[in-house]
Hints:
2 copies of one chain form a homodimer. The first copy, chain A, is an alpha/beta fold. Helices cover 37% and strands 22% of the residues of chain A.
Amino acid sequence: METYIVSDVGGTHIRVAAFDVSTLALVAQKKILTQGHGLLPTERLVNAIANIGKEHEIKAIAIALPGFLDPEKGMIIEAPNIPDWINLPLRDIIKDYFKVPVFIGNDANLAALGEWKFGAGIGHKNILYLTISTGIGSGVIIDNHLLQGERGLAAEFGHLTILPDGPICGCGKPGHIEALSSGTAIGNYVREQIALGRNSSLNALSNPSGSDIYDAAINGDDLAIESFSRAGKYLGLALANFLHMLNPSIVIFGGGVSQAGELLFKPMRDSLEDAIISKEYLQNLIITTAKLGDDVGLKGALALLLSKYQSPEIFTQQILFN
Amino acid sequence: METYIVSDVGGTHIRVAAFDVSTLALVAQKKILTQGHGLLPTERLVNAIANIGKEHEIKAIAIALPGFLDPEKGMIIEAPNIPDWINLPLRDIIKDYFKVPVFIGNDANLAALGEWKFGAGIGHKNILYLTISTGIGSGVIIDNHLLQGERGLAAEFGHLTILPDGPICGCGKPGHIEALSSGTAIGNYVREQIALGRNSSLNALSNPSGSDIYDAAINGDDLAIESFSRAGKYLGLALANFLHMLNPSIVIFGGGVSQAGELLFKPMRDSLEDAIISKEYLQNLIITTAKLGDDVGLKGALALLLSKYQSPEIFTQQILFN
Lengths: 322, 322
């Protein structure tokens, strides 16, 4: 059987799956740690692909990767959570090993492509996908095409400046939306306020986690509620900016923090409505959560392969997974 | 002779031109006032087209328009400088009159298309065009396609929030880049500082114009220089955001304020370099000024018609005007 091999590489886990080229049925999948056993992440990735692909012919490979990439050149410029991966020609390394075509893509970009092809974005041509977890990632579909920019560096919406004098982002620059509305930002705000002597049920915990803060908010803790509503307020302001620039028909939220639901989304909508320059942007706009869950990277990588091997007409006809 | 008729409608002037369909040579052009002689702007536009088109067969008409449009539906939603044009089905009005296909587009969007096809953007696939005059307009080319969004409302980059508590924009919302870096913003800043008792050669003038401020800056007036460098600083911050989102290969500046040159662009580049999250965005990036001058609206409208009537292969082959 001829298969597409896809992989989703994160700082902690490498996931690999094989799909039947003709039916797109899932043939096999596997999840391993990214680091360990004295092997480099690249070696572990090669082994995982070899292992899952060994019983079938491989037609092509696609890999979803964190950080900055140049998809055209197949280069990882920098992968924040995998220290060794700087200026690494990963595509050619994998290609030289398996002797089949290999494609790489940024994980949030491919997640957007996956949600468009197989998930919450089916039937939409203009999509903004935002994943809110430790950081804020994003991917954009414009007129049924993935926004990549000249060198694949586009769609870094987490690094929109919202408060030029605001808190420092993971990237080192001040006031980005990631530094105001990510899970990390929510946790930092709670800790800061407690350090300032703020009263909260979270006082009892030395280092409250995201789910601690969520539970406290559900139980009516003012600080916990405020930490989500502050994040939501800035997210709504950022979203207004994104709508002015992209005018999508749907905004899809992925990532763990999105599961906080109305704690985050009610203040977000309020602030979005305040900041939008015309109600026309909100007419028929759908704001929803992602559908593909943990599979989003793998299915996004599969969507990338289909974009290469299906005719444009068939590719833009949305299909459903079985 | 079969002709394309194009028009560029502004708050003050309506320009109309006819181009030979086979050679793209300019056949005739005319410029009239948008309002006057007891006629509505729509009537004046129809007359101008009829006048210039009367000696030739018209193949199609394209019109560049200010404000919010729905290009798919051919509707003007709101045109800030032409008070009567609210929810106006202008495309169908013109089409019913002339019985030929009619297309409309936002003037800044079409300017981007014009610069891509005929001007500073020739050969580039990913372009950000910003026009800085009274306000800040923008147009974006992604992978040789005009960014329009679901309803044609995309690419409103002038309404990027830079300072949430900053000065009020023409649209009524606070802190947009248009309220910080446009010609209006530069003038407002000078007037504010003078009202606060700031010493400046501009004190002598009751209402200094843009060119007064430019002249004062060239002559070493501190306040005038500062008004441009403040605008440039915020523009650089906005530009970093745009690059993170779009990763273009070229940024083209049009509009009168861009003619201030290094007074504006030096501080802009400094602040851009400060704010960019990776030098990769600046590698091989071209930042330049527009080439088409006052013709940009007409040539943008012509480019829109070519996108409709030329095959995609021929259309994306860049051609030069004679």
